[in-house]
Design brief:
By secondary structure, the protein is α/β, with parallel strands linked by helices. It has 15 helices and 19 strands. α10 packs parallel to α11. It is globular, with a radius of gyration of 23 Å. Bound molecules: S-adenosyl-L-homocysteine (SAH), iron/sulfur cluster (SF4) and FE3-S4 cluster.
């Protein structure tokens, strides 16, 4: 997107004002339709970007007069915010929506709505239109801010509402947000993706990259800090592209430094970084900013340069390793690396898969998110020859997860005796009198402690690394 388009993509104050009027209209419509406050159930699939969108949806629904429930069978409004990244994610949505057919028949006054990335695909919207007649409202990723208007039309009109404009995407500021947690918050800094990795649907359903103005991000960040949020995660499909479309340009590293300099006791996280745009400046910024978590989520996807080329990732294994070595040099053991890996990309050979295994050995990630390749309609990879059978891919996948399990255990063992500043986020699972905390590297450490510690930072010494969590004890000073 060029700079001019990026500007015109911002939703105007007038449009947002119009939506406010629809908020009042929905308010009146639901008081006429239902006895008392109706309940809404918002079910979210997919990544943090979707979680952040659902928090906006809930923010708007609250204004419109809805209460909330986790039980879809007592809701007057059920919204599925869907993900399209793999077939499995889509199958789950179809299954769950299908299971509501009877509920809708017995409760004709309930509204069933579908939104999110899956709905942004025309073939899916068509399928819903044809085969799921009990779905009342379908809307795409670029019109979330118009929920009041769309819901009003659904509640008062006779027809089903489908609103899926195909645009490069918009930025809507000032939407109310009802956050799921009082302690950690998601803060999208940019939307969309321009990378078009050959297997990935995200650029098609989320539009082009567009950055929020730095001043808007700082304003929201300060509000979060003043509200007591201690862990704030900056979100973007590729945060390293942040600010390239702004006038004047701002780098993501610059944004991090400005946020780091704000007053308050908080920790900044961010995801996801793309190796092709991950700069040494960013790594240096992570190392030098005391409030920026020493956690780098840097997906490599494959260890074979041929496969990386076919994936259109635009970096090599060697370039990836150089970044990891540089980050480890600056941040040492404090740094936690996590990554995403795809097994069974079309045409990947066993030899090439073994290169992924050897890269996994070299990277020594704390943990990996591993996926078997899933063809996505409309992407270049879906048209490629894919001769390796699913059963074979499953065997490779098992090899990969076994290897990472060993590496994760080795990595965990290195933490024994170390002391970390940790954010205590909730009750523990190891025992009734335990609470759970996260260190900078996103590792979970549980320790004996009172629930009053929840919401504070504490220094915790690791006593015993277990498989996924570590057992620790509270200490006075970080040594
Ligand atoms: N923007 C992020 C990740 C977005 S999707 C990035 O570029 O790293 C999260 C992960 O899902 C990807 O990193 C990839 O590992 C996986 N993924 C995406 N499309 C996939 C597909 N078609 N099949 C299997 N895994 C996929
Ligand atoms: Fe998908 Fe690649 Fe964009 Fe990540 S960078 S969202 S994997 S296209
Ligand atoms: Fe899924 Fe959309 Fe996120 S496809 S992974 S919810 S951006």
């Amino acid at each position: 997107m060029n700079k001019q388009n990026a500007k015109t993509a911002v939703v105007s104050a007038g449009e947002l004002e119009e939506q406010k009027q629809y908020v009042s209209r929905v308010h009146s419509a639901i008081s006429a339709l239902y006895n008392g406050k109706p309940k809404a159930c918002v079910i979210t699939y997919g990544c943090q970007q979707n979680v952040a969108d659902s928090e906006k949806i809930k923010g708007m629904l609250e204004l419109m007069g809805y209460d909330f429930t986790d039980d879809r069978f007592e809701a007057k409004l059920i919204i599925f915010n869907t993900c399209a990244v793999r077939e499995h994610a889509e199958d789950r949505v179809f299954g769950n929506v299908g299971a509501l057919k009877n509920y809708k028949r017995e409760h004709p006054d309930a509204v069933l709505a579908l939104c999110g990335c899956m709905m942004q695909q025309q073939h899916i919207a068509d399928k819903i239109k044809k085969s799921y007649p009990f779905v009342d409202l379908v809307f795409g990723t670029h019109v979330i801010h118009r929920l009041p208007e769309l819901l009003y039309k659904t509640l008062t009109g006779k027809k089903r509402v489908f609103e899926i404009p195909d645009t490069d995407g918009i930025i809507a500021e000032g939407i109310p947000v009802k956050r799921d947690s009082d302690a950690k918050a998601w803060l999208p800094v940019m939307y969309g993706c321009n990378n078009f990795c050959s297997y990935c649907i995200v650029p098609y359903v989320r539009g082009r990259e567009r950055s929020r103005e730095k001043a808007e991000i700082i304003k929201e960040f300060k509000t979060l800090v003043s509200q007591g949020y201690k862990e704030i995660t900056l979100l973007g499909q590729n945060v390293n592209s942040y600010g390239k479309d702004l006038t004047p340009c701002v780098s993501f590293a610059e944004l991090l430094r400005e946020l780091n300099a704000l007053d308050g006791d908080f920790r900044i996280r961010f995801m996801t970084s793309h190796p092709k745009d991950c700069t040494k400046e960013l790594i240096e910024t992570m190392a030098s900013c005391d409030k920026v978590a020493q956690h780098l989520h840097l997906p490599f996807q494959s260890g074979s340069n041929r496969v990386l080329g076919a994936m259109n990732r635009r970096y090599t294994r060697e370039q990836y390793l150089e970044l990891i070595h540089y980050a480890r040099k600056l941040m040492g053991d404090e740094l936690s690396v996590t990554s995403d890996v795809i097994v069974g990309f079309p045409g990947e050979t066993y030899e090439e898969f073994k290169e992924t295994l050897s890269l996994v050995e070299e990277v020594k990630a704390t943990s990996l998110f591993t996926f078997i390749y899933s063809p996505r309609k409309g992407t270049p990879a879906a048209e490629m020859d894919d001769p390796v059978p699913a059963s074979e891919k499953s065997k490779w996948f098992k090899k990969l997860t076994d290897l990472q399990e060993r590496i994760s255990a080795e990595q965990m063992a290195l933490h024994k005796g170390k002391i970390y500043k940790c954010y205590v986020y909730g009750k523990g699972k190891l025992a009734d009198n335990y609470v759970a905390a996260r260190n900078d590297g996103n590792l979970i450490i549980e320790f004996e402690g009172d629930e009053s510690l929840i919401g504070t930072f504490q220094n915790i010494k690791v006593i015993e690394p277990l498989t996924f969590v570590m057992r620790g004890e509270i200490v006075k000073e970080k040594q």
